[in-house]
């Protein structure tokens, strides 16, 4: 034991001050070895990113991991993903509509089509259906059938706001779910989107990276304005095909094979069952034939590689064919009419199934809009490398929180109107913030705020 006068390591705090105290039973303090501090130069070894099939190079492995983790937010059911809530709402509204249609028309067959059915939905996605009703076979036109369905749904159900039937090459019945404000489009006797949706499902089943990559690119296209067919820009299906083409030809080894070449029977007229569980699973057939995935690139590398590929792609001289698994040179006769199967267009992405050539990107009909789309590929590539993030505007989390917050505020606004007995338009509360919102938009988009060219009236 140490002498009674040994000072302990502990201190007793009295009146806010620390004072050493003598302890009768304190242990002997251990002896410390002498150590010396010297100045020296530390050698830092830079960790190079492994090479990838997309041909992109990140500043460091940490940057690639960060970009990959951001793209992983778009995985279906990913922990912490802000998309899960919207997907759950879409699924609930889908079941509710199918129940309402079945109650009104017991002989109805329902196919869910579009982004949600293919697993490529984003927070702004709505629902799309095509149906077949045998009891309405006597009606001459699809528009007449949809008008009958419209009238019956308006009388027999209250969950949906039955708006109108929009005419056109393919008439559409427009609905809106009252509780969630989710829009629903219904067509009838429309076979083309059934096959297109199943086509996207088949490719997403081949590799688990396809769905989150498509969702991330679609989210980028929505945020930048590249996707907006009503304003003469790209539509959702053409963007999906651009991603598939990149995964076929823009990386080496390829992520996706050419399914139409491997399974030529799907190029003909095939029937898509209304029951998804009865449909063919091409990915399983592909693996039985001995195919295996050779590409191990991260989602971050594939995402950046997508922009690198299309910022260099020459759309003026080449057109994209998923059916052939490649891009081909545009060839014209002396009168500038195409001599190949591709139609005329600034961006040509061939429909993979239609016998008559159809350009899925035919909505882009103006040179200035086409040029802006090409600029967006280059801008996004540069911004990802410079700012090391895929979110240039609001993050996904912020978008969802703001949207849900506005929905809650709208409910509170309704209660205020009921309580006061007066009606204050919801839109009026935003009028005073218009100039501030525009200024904030310019500052927070990292200098990329530019108005899109207007679509000409004759289009």
TrEMBL record:
Keyword list, A-Z: Magnesium, Metal-binding, Transferase
Classification via SUPFAM superfamilies: Nucleotidyltransferase, PAP/OAS1 substrate-binding domain
MF-aspect GO terms: metal ion binding; poly(A) RNA polymerase activity
Residues covered by the Poly(A) RNA polymerase mitochondrial-like central palm domain: 92-205
Domain PAP-associated, chain residue ranges per copy: 298-354
GO biological process, one term: RNA 3'-end processing
Cofactor or coenzyme needed: Mn(2+); Mg(2+)
Full protein name: Uncharacterized protein
Pfam families linked to this entry: MTPAP-like_central, PAP_assoc
Superkingdom to which the source organism belongs: Eukaryota
